[in-house]
Design goal:
The chain has about 250 residues and is of the alpha+beta class. The protein is built from 7 helices and 11 strands. The chain has one domain: Muramoyl-pentapeptide Carboxypeptidase, domain 2 (2-Layer Sandwich), CATH 3.30.1380. The structure holds zinc ion. The site of zinc ion has 5 residues, from strand 7.
Amino acid sequence: MIRAGAILLALLVPLAPAAAQDRPPERPGETAAPPEASAETVPPPTAMFGPPAPPAWWMLRETDQELAACKLALSHLGTVYAEQPPLTDAADPDCGIARPIRVDRILPDLVLEGGAVMRCDTARGLGFWARDFLRPAASHLPGAPRVTGLRLGTTYDCRPRIGTGEDRPKLSEHALGNAIDIAAVLLDGADPLVIQPRTDTGDLAEAFQRTIRAAGCLFFTTVLGPGANAAHDDHLHLDIAARRGGWRLCQ
Ligand SMILES: [Zn+2]
């Protein structure tokens, strides 16, 4: 008789109200229906989204350990530089450099004309590029001229990106101390090698420009130059923009 009662109960359970079965199960603490939102119950924007994000330059600030490691690399390279106070810009709160350095010579005898303020990581990339590829490449030009300096284009500059065709361009890497533009390579006993469109000129100047541009991608995550777009026809743009997955843009 007990077994017959259990079977009867099992048959009756599916007869529970259908509406209750169509709803997803409630999670602990969840009420069946949220209260209607009204003008009084909508929280202010800061409560909904939290405080505004910190400025872009502050998010990139180096820890003491990161800066020490970078400065050690610069000392191995023989870079001549001076640490500077934090750099911010009234034009845009996202522009700036948390721990800038001013570089006058990227290698002991290789000047940056006019000097340049940048992040330490930018200087480190530039130093290794100059030591390991720029100088050795120049040594294969006629007369084996020594690279004595770099003529710079834009260094630090609080501005949006140019030449991208974007309606609302993002902040330039120049605005964060992550980028440097090279307009010409200065050579001892030879004319400066000016960065310019050299496609299919078939000479050593084209070979040299192609070589140093390609090598830049080993140290920088963005390398742009003549042919990338009209805005880069007279310089090499090198930057250390951080991208997801370590992706590089070398054109
Ligand atoms: Zn640039």
